[in-house]
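Budget justification, computational time. The allocation requested in the original proposal was used primarily to generate structure tokens for proteins on the priority list. As evidence of use, we reproduce two of the resulting records. The first is shown immediately below.
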Amino acid sequence: MTDIASSNQDRSAEIDRCLSLIAPSQPDESKFVGMLLLPRLLQQNEPESVQRVFDGMNFKFIERLLRTNTSDNGSDSQIPGHVLREIAVNVLACFAHYDKMAATQPMADRIPGLSTILTANDPSDTTQEALHTMMCIAVSKEGLVRMLDPDVLKNILELVAETSNQKERQLGTQLIHGTFARACHLLHETRIPSLASALKYALPTLFTALSRLLDKHQDELKFEALDLLSSILPNLPSEVVRKFKDENASELSSWLDGLRSGLRQLLTTKLGDKYRDQAMVTTACLLRYFDTDWLFGTLKKTKQSRRRSEKKPSNRTTDATEADIKFPQLLIHLVAVETRVILDDIHDRRLNEHNLQAVEVDEEKEKRQEIMLPIYYEILESAIQYLSSHYDEERDSGMDAEVLLKIRTALTDTMNVVMELLKFVQDTSSDDQLENDMVAQASMRIVAVYLAEEGYEME
């Protein structure tokens, strides 16, 4: 016991010596020595010692170490720059292990510096350690504001795009997911002007990177971008999106074109439920935030497209432009089919329950249906509203009659299934049950929109 106490006293004395060496008044050589020794003395199972080091830390010098250039050996020191950065990250990682320290302003202020050392395919563990540390810090309002800085976000997104190291990419995407999720959650709970402003200024960087990844990449990065979009977009506060739109009107068209192209590529290929659902969620959110022209606008080119196709050889393949023009029709058809499949399944299940027949419970399937049915309805509602406002029998809208007829048929067939389910629910449910039935409420809304807007239909 005496030896242990003596050892602890010795380490405490060494910590005090290191803190004196890194004091602002000391020359750089002393600070380098102190920083080299400190990581070896810090024990994460001794919070009192770590807190003492944190309280005495020269954070300005930590920042200098983080900002050391790759070729810089740190003033007149013979210590390589990458070693200095690694030391700084190790010290910050030790502090970040404790929630109280991680949530402080000095730690939040280190996020920009930490983001500058991120290196794709880093042979050391420094990049991964920096990402872990940033995750721990990005929990407080101060940490989130720093994380949403466009330069910080750009550094992380570039790492995700450039690295072939799966762990680095995974940590990078987790950091982005967590940052936006926590920021949006806080803003939905309370008004925080600084955080709302930071989120607004982060969105151009996010849209620039993710629209490019979704459109141009044909590898895992396309699905990483889709995953980020489908998790971030549904939670964005509407007021933040409104201001973002107003301040970035000139760039919106380019971003939406890239997102539309990427979504078309995904939804015109065979996808599993997970990625198809993510693509549908992303589509519905973009329609909610940015109206309908960006997606359905090419319907105005369908008449011209048909005329061109009639002049082409029958064996000529469809190019990207023609595929883009046909995308709205394909999407509406796909959503209509998916909607009918879900409604038929819900109807059958409820009919069996009403008749007291055995029903096989599939909680995962039912949960997916509860999530996706409103998403499908939202896309169909947007299509109905677009057609009702842009099609006019008295003038040439550029929309092909055959395309419109196919869309009308898909919508009518779907609405018939919706109304059939609604009739069954109304006949078998009390008013209270009907009021609390989310499927019924969403179905009544889409039917009301359809009946109110069906003036676009051709006679």
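The second record produced under the same allocation is shown here.
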Amino acid sequence: WFGIEQEYVLLEKNGLPIGWPSQRHTLKGCQSYFYAVGSENVAGRQVADAHVKACSYAGVKLYGSNGEAIISQWEYQIGPLPGVEAGDHLWISRYILQRVAEDFDVVVSFEPRPFGSSRQPGGAGHINFSTKSSRSEGGLDWINKAIAKLELTHELHLAAYDPRKDKSNEERLKGNLLATPQREFSAAVGSKRVCVRVPRQTQVAGRGFFEDRRPGANVEPYRAMQALVQTLCSVK
């Protein structure tokens, strides 16, 4: 099963993020914007909420939406769903988001480096992954073996997660950004600064899912999920 966390940024037609102050140095720290409320901390909630409602009406399996690390950046979650179905729902949700954005006269960016600066957050498309083995008793052992295989195939996955072959996502991974893994492979429990994160509830339960944090916001879901299946389907 797959769950995809799709981040995006809302821009004015001139390319500037909506809601940003004229003097960028007055932006607050990123912690002020995660799941934020208040007009001083949020821009674009009408777009995000309208998108959720439109997806619900269309039957898209969208299960959450929240403000992200910087004002004008949002995230929504697709799934959990089987692989091809998860990709279908993500593509339709992206289309609906862009149609909704037209009504508000704003532009949607799915760029891995939407702000162009290493000082600002990147745009991600994290993929949560589980199998019957990982969700069963003793599943944490399976997850640890899976992570070992992901380390061996790290370069193959980075290529699969780069749909334009322009290494824009690799630039995100080199940016030393908040909640962004580094270029070298890493894994840990609970940390957002690693390539593969094991949620604390998975560790406590001894089974569950893990999160691949390497994909960027422009990830091509079918290729990314195919890479995960090809790498991990032989794990016993």
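A brief technical remark on that second record: The mean pLDDT is 90.
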